[in-house]
Amino acid sequence: MPKFYGDRQGKKFRIWVDRVISAQIGLDTWSVKFDKWELSDEGPKGCTSTVVLRTKDSASDGFVWMHMNQTWLTGFEAADQAYSWLF
Q: What separation in angstroms does the CA of 63 have from each of 22, 55, 71, 84?
């Protein structure tokens, strides 16, 4: 990740999430689904993300990420297939 630090400096760039839905799927396990958006000079990009989290007291934020899946939203895909998102 260090090679990406500051790669958008001085450019129009914004990231946000919306449509956040969470559900407890086990005693200590949660599923969270949300749309993640990125707006830059290249235009908007968006994907739906689903994350499975497990509570863990020793973790800095109280959760451990168990699984994550991202699917591009139709019409908001990256033009360059090599483009990757860093969550």
A: 14, 4, 23, 24
Tokens coding 57: 């007291």
Token pair of 71, please? Answer: 């699917």
Q: CB count, 10 Å around CB of 12?
A: 9
Which SS3 state, helix, strand or coil, does residue 50 take?
strand
Q: What is the pLDDT of residues 35-80, one digit of tens each?
A: 999 998 888 999 999 999 999 988 888 999 999 999 999 998 877 6
- Residues 54, 32 contacting (CB under 8 angstroms): no
With beta carbons less than 8 A apart as the criterion, state whether 52 and 67 touch.
Answer: yes
